């Protein structure tokens, strides 16, 4: 191995997942783009979002303006657990949420999906109008209907749920959100 190759191997950067991350979709010169912003802290993340929004205002045909509530995205603390989650009571329980996804629907409502650490699929979901979604999320930040656009957010919240009288296709009760609180 040459000295240059050995030096390059020794100084290779180590990349870690950014605790602050957000996506913006825009149409620029007739092409649809998804731009991802990542940062190690909220100040840098906010500055990057502001800079991107200012740039998009001058370049984009039509951009979805990404506005984030004052305390979102919150840092995810600790590594995802590989332990099995505590069993939930049949009539209710609490989820400890670290990630939320918002997906607009064709009928004007939004799917709001909540995930515990390390989970690929949502632990609990809600279908709401943008106004209902913002109201549901008020306890964990300054959410408004304008925030109910496609996005993924790192949050720290506890969701209490109760079992519904309605059953899913597997014969299990749906889970209804009783409350959302900061964790």
- Classify the helix fraction into a percent range: 10-25%
Global geometry? globular
Largest sheet: 5 strands, antiparallel
How much of the sequence lies in strands comes to 35-45%
SSE run: HEEHEEEEHEE
Total DSSP helices = 3
Description:
The chain folds into two domains: 3-63, no CATH class; 92-182. It starts with a helix and ends with a strand. It has helices at residues 3-10, 42-59, 130-137; strands at residues 20-28, 31-39, 62-63, 92-104, 110-116, 124-128, 151-167, 173-182. Strands 6-5-4-7-8 form a five-stranded antiparallel beta sheet, covered by helices on one side. It contains three helices and eight strands. Strand 1 and strand 2 (31-39) form a beta hairpin. It is α+β, with helices and mostly antiparallel strands and 183 residues long. The radius of gyration is 20 Å and the shape is globular. 20% of the residues are buried.
Write the layout of secondary structure elements.
Blueprint: H1 3-10, E1 20-28, E2 31-39, H2 42-59, E3 62-63, E4 92-104, E5 110-116, E6 124-128, H3 130-137, E7 151-167, E8 173-182
Antiparallel strand pairs: 1-2, 1-3, 4-5, 4-7, 5-6, 7-8
């Amino acid at each position: 191995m040459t000295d240059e190759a050995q030096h390059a191997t020794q100084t290779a950067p180590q990349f870690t997942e950014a605790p602050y991350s957000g996506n913006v979709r825009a149409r620029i010169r007739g092409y649809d783009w998804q731009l991802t912003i990542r940062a190690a802290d909220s100040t840098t993340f906010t500055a990057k979002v502001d800079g991107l929004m200012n740039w998009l205002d001058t370049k984009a045909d039509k951009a979805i303006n990404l506005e984030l509530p004052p305390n979102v995205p919150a840092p995810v603390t600790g590594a995802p657990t590989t332990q099995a989650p505590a069993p939930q009571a049949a009539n209710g329980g609490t989820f400890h949420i670290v990630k939320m996804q918002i997906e607009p629907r064709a009928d004007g409502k939004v799917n709001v999906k909540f995930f515990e650490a390390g989970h690929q699929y949502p632990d609990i979901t809600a279908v709401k109008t943008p106004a209902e979604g913002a109201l549901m999320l008020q306890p964990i930040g300054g959410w408004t209907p304008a925030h109910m656009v496609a996005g993924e957010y790192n949050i720290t919240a506890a969701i209490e749920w109760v079992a519904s009288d309605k059953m899913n296709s597997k014969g299990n009760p749906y889970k209804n959100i009783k409350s959302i609180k900061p964790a």
